[in-house]
Specification:
Oligomer: single chain
Radius of gyration: 13 Å
Number of helices: 2
Order of helices and strands: HEEEEEEH
Helix content: 10-25%
Largest sheet: 6 strands, antiparallel, barrel
Strand order of the largest sheet: 1-2-3-6-5-4
């Protein structure tokens, strides 16, 4: 994942650490549960337990939002970096960050 570190450190949008349960699906495929753990207006990082090839188009569904189209930009083990087809509006991003802050261990 070191070769992908620059993708997260050189973003044009700020990112937020979150814990968001979601579902991901490929075109024509079934939904699979994922955990979104990092979000920016331009994309997200997720943890999932199945293989999705790089550059594949996926649709992310989070509670209260329409499915969001994205491209798998990279993956390392069970983690994937995804780029939204269309950036999130600032207000939507801020709402999601407020609604799903990162769960911290006590």
């Amino acid at each position: 994942m070191a070769e992908h570190r620059h993708l997260f450190n050189s973003r044009q949008y700020p990112r937020g650490e979150v814990t968001i349960p979601g579902e991901i699906r490929e075109r024509g495929g079934g939904k699979q549960k994922v955990a979104v753990i990092d979000l920016s207006q331009s994309g997200f990082k997720m943890h999932c337990m199945f293989l999705i090839p790089q550059d594949r188009t996926v649709f992310l569904t989070m509670q209260g939002l329409e499915p969001l189209e994205a491209r798998i930009a990279w993956h390392s083990e069970d983690f994937y970096g995804c780029e939204f087809k269309r950036p999130l509006y600032q207000a939507v991003f801020e709402h999601v960050i407020r609604t799903y802050p990162m769960l911290r261990k006590a």
